[in-house]
Design a protein that fits this description.
The protein has about 260 residues and is an all-beta fold. It has no helices and 15 strands.
Length: about 260
Amino acid sequence: GQAGSTVYTGSGRIDGTIRDQFSISEHEGVLRAATTTGQWGRWGMQDPEPMESHVITLAHNVDITTGEQILEEIGRVDGIAYNETIWSARFVEDRAYIVTFQNMDPLWTIDLSNPESPQIMGELEVPGVSTYIHPLSDDAILTIGLGPRDLETGLGLDWSHTQLSLFNVSNFSDPQSTDVLSLSPVTDTEDGWNWAWSEATWEHKAFQYWAPKGMLAVPLSTYKYDYWYDEADQYHWEYEWVSKLIIINVSEEGLS
């Protein structure tokens, strides 16, 4: 098309729910989408079909009956993580990384080098869940999310800490956990502090990674409710807030 103009060239339709902008991607003329089906309306059903996730590839074509330009499905992989939903996804050239979650966080690696036949390559179960995936190189990815509530079983989510995870994906069929770093804005999370959070777990612009220095900045916040009685037995209260920026050294070998 002409510079400065946008031309509509067709659309396609796929089933399911797309989580965010990182769950959809274009590479060499192929549109790729990570989607979860069976997610909506299931709570009112007696015996709902299990949720499952898919990666679907679409390419530009022309409908032979109408002559309309369309995006046509050319390939798919189904059956990713039954009864779990996608919490984060990232497409990097002909690779896809997907994190699903119910009680334990599996990281899935998917090969898209043949878009007509995407293949699940590997799966790694790790405690907690990742909400954003950041590729460091062909050999490593960095994620942010929440750690496990139960450290012994690795199940559930701990809403008082933010967790960074580093994965080795040099063997794409066998992803491995390299390092995990748990972050909190306060040292004693039991001392009346409520749940802590990092904006970077839901807003990727708050995930500030600077590759030349191998440095990551992560904002962290929490608060607690304080109250006391004065000498006249009058009730007083206030909120105490803590907001910090944590700087992390990142390499493909570890986090500190």
